[in-house]
Amino acid sequence: MPNASGHARVPGSNQLTHKEAWEEEQEVTELLQEDYPLWFEKPVLEMVHHNTVSLDKLVDQAWVEILTKYAVDEECDFLVRFLFILV
């Protein structure tokens, strides 16, 4: 339903216009792309596809998956320690 300025409001979105909601969604999408690299996408999508557990459990499972396993193309830091023995 349009407000006094003639803009439509999107229900349930803190009284944002459709354009404001779309712009906010774009900003969040950009932030997520910066914070969560592409290599997380496939394992998480495979996990959630047809999954019927609660959202809380699903988030926990995805978090454990990301923290405990490497994904294809994931960037990794490799630390090598050298032990020098002087004789």
UniProtKB/TrEMBL annotation:
Record GO cellular component, one term: WICH complex
Keywords, in A-Z order: Nucleus
Superkingdom of the source species: Eukaryota
GO MF term list: histone binding; histone H2AXY142 kinase activity
Transmembrane intervals: none
Pfam families: WAC_Acf1_DNA_bd
GO biological processes: DNA damage response
The keyword Transmembrane appears for this protein: no
Main localization of the protein described in the UniProt heading: nucleus
Domain WAC: 1-82
PANTHER family (alphabetical): TYROSINE-PROTEIN KINASE BAZ1B
Name the record gives this protein: WAC domain-containing protein
